[in-house]
Amino acid sequence: MTPLVAGTLYLGGLLLFLIFQIWFMVVAARREVLWFLAVFFLPFVQLVFLFVEPKSIKPWVLSIVCLAASIFGIVAYNPAHSRYMTTRERITRLREDMELQLAEPSKQLEMRKARVRKWQQQLEQKKAALNPTDPVAQAAFDRELQDYLVELQSVKDAIASSVAN
User: Fold this and answer.
1) Are 20 and 66 contacting, i.e. CB atoms less than 8 angstroms apart?
2) Which pLDDT score is estimated for 29?
3) What's the pTM?
4) Which of 76, 74, 93, 77 is nearest to 144 (CA)?
């Protein structure tokens, strides 16, 4: 699912969820102020209120449907369609850099090789999902590919120097 569709589902579903929940609260407030307070502060009271006030069924069901659409927008989002590196990828890359710096010199080369292999797989996935008509995404992919090639050459040089020693 593209970021635009996923974001629309997420934000639209969340906005409509809030609107329908406000409608539900208005129905509870019209019934009685104590019902409103109970429904507002105790979420499971909403289920009880559904049986007490039949007018509350429609806004509650619609709010649950919108919440499900919002959750679907989050779950179905495929970061491979994203134009840029996701926040999770950045955090993972930073964590790997820190682990690499703290590792023993003998393990650093193995960790760098594993990182390059993983990065290659991610680039293959991104290339498969890349929209050829999107120049911005293509440019972002090219920049990341250049970074990968620089790191790959660095690892090759480190391997060559370790074999020479």
Assistant:
1) yes
2) 96
3) 0.51
4) 93
